[in-house]
Amino acid sequence: MNTPFKLAFKRMPTPAFIIESSTGKLLSYNRNFEAFFEKFNATPATTWDTLCEDAATSANWQVLNETIRTGKIDRCESLIRVGDKLINMQLELQHLGESVLACVYETDHMDLSAAENTLLKFALTESSAGLWIWETDSDLVSCSKSIAILLGCSPEQTPRSTPEWHARVHPDDVKKLDTLVNEHVTHNQDYYEVEYRIRKDDLTYLWVKERGRTYTKNADGHIKKIIGFVVDISHQKALEEHLRNQATFDELTGLLTRGAALTHFKKQLGLAKRQYTPLTMAKIHLDANSRLLALPMEERNIAIQTSARYIYKKIREADVLARVEDDKLLLLLPNTSVRDAKTLLNHIINPTNDEQKLLKEGNSDSVDFCIGIATFPEDGESIEELALSANQAVEEGQAKQQKIVVN
User: Fold this and answer.
1) pLDDT digits (tens, 9 = 90+) for 193-214
2) Would you put residue 78 in left (φ > 0), alpha (ψ -120 to 50) or beta?
3) 156 membership: H or E segment, kind and range
4) Could you count the other beta carbons within 10 Å of the beta carbon of residue 211?
5) What is the end-to-end Cα distance of the chain in Å, rounded?
6) How far is 241 from 233, CA to CA, in rounded Å?
7) What does the alpha-carbon distance between residue 17 and residue 27 come to, in Å, rounded to a whole number?
8) What are the residues whose beta carbons fall under 8 Å from the beta carbon of 166, sequence distance 6 or more?
9) What distance in Å separates the CA atoms of residue 42 and residue 82, rounded to the nearest whole number?
10) Closest CA to 55 of 66, 47, 67
11) 253 and 328 in contact (C-beta within 8 Å)?
């Protein structure tokens, strides 16, 4: 060890020692490491296996040295013998070629309250984040006060173990969370991130994003402690759901949009092909007489909305109805022949007196409806072909002033 390095090492404020790579022998330790032992009227051991309770023989050092050299571990926790006491210490390890530098941090009395001082405490309190530490060997979970606030409970009621944590997680999300964390521990990963729902004390669920990071490892390289945050992302999830609904459902009518309907249509077509069952598609023109075009936009929208709701109530549960144009709907009738389809559609274009009254109150009228029918496989073997065929039937019906036309 050269003189400048030796002086810097001796005066380091952090307790530290140097181990010979090939033998595990303690070559040197600084003043602060020595002072720590003096508190207990003890002197540091001379070899790694006599210093560390976890090391049974000198061979344990060779294994650890190799993991440090290859970069598989740079921090670990070990029980260090200090006189007749065993003290849990965090060691930060750096390979220097012929030796290893170990900087020591006592971790026996680690307290989350210390992590919540000043600015960090303010950040955790004012945000929707909560801090936790998990000791994998004992399965002890330590939660910050901010997690208690997040869950709406007292600090004493926060989860203290994995089963207690999982008891609050939504049943549909427990397996995902458990699998991801177990993989993190099993494969000695550095970091993981997962989203799930967790139950508050008022029995409501909130969405959280959990970010976990390996904090310390044992001398054998296995993860000993994981530290992480949970952040409330309920507002983000609500926005995502809103945007999904906007993309899936037409805002005016509440029916499926063209893109969303396509997925359902293709699924039903696939079933029809596999099961050799009939499939009928109907294109419904809500303004075949062009009456709605003369109405103000607000009244026209009310008419389209009224017509769509009326038709939706007349179809069966298995049928799929979508708005594909401003004044046109597309109806898919699974396991339905042309004859059965015409029967159903006749009920739509011939409402009862009460139904017709409700339609007119909403600026709609069944006399404006025109329907074109296409069937699988006669009129096409893809959704696009069936839709084109049904549209041609509608145009023909509109031209000939017919209510229902089969292509």
Assistant:
1) 999 999 999 999 999 999 988 8
2) beta
3) none
4) 14
5) 93
6) 12
7) 8
8) 174, 177, 178
9) 6
10) 47
11) no
At residue 316, the 3 state secondary structure works out as: coil
- Of 36, 37, 38, 31, residue with least CA distance to 8: 31
Query: How far from the centroid of its chain's Cα atoms is residue 30's Cα?
Result: 48
Which of 9, 18, 68 has its CA nearest to residue 48?
A: 18
Per-residue model confidence (pLDDT) at position 114: 45
332: closest CA among 274, 287, 267, 403? 267
> Running DSSP on this structure, what letter comes out for residue 169?
B
Residue in the structure block whose two tokens are 């049943």: 171
For 216, the enclosing helix (H) or strand (E) is: strand 205-217
Q: Which of 49, 90, 100 is nearest to 70 (CA)?
A: 100
pTM: 0.48
- Tell me the pLDDT tens digit for each residue of 82-93: 888 888 888 888
Strand order in the sheet with 320-325: 320-325, 328-334, 279-285, 370-376, 404-406
Domains, the chain, in order of start with CATH, read 3-106 (3.30.450.20), 112-238 (3.30.450.20), 249-406 (3.30.70.270)
Give, in degrees to the nearest 5, the angle at Cα 47 between 46 and 53.
115
- From CA 307, how far away is CA 349, in angstroms rounded? 11
Q: Which helix (H) or strand (E) holds 392?
A: helix 383-400
DSSP symbol at 311:
H
The residue assigned the tokens 């159903």 is 344
On the 0-12 / 13-18 / 19+ scale of CB atoms within 10 A, 7 is exposed
Q: What are phi and psi of 41, to 5 degrees?
A: 55, 45
| Cβ-defined contacts of 125-128 (< 8 Å, 24+) | 125/149, 127/231, 128/231, 128/232
Count other Cβ atoms within 10 Å, centred on residue 266. Answer: 12
318 — phi, psi (to 5°)?
-80, -15
Q: List pLDDT tens digits, range 248-270.
A: 888 899 999 888 888 889 999 99
The DSSP element (H or E) to which 148 belongs, if any, is helix 145-151
Q: Are strands 370-376 and 404-406 parallel, antiparallel or unpaired?
A: parallel
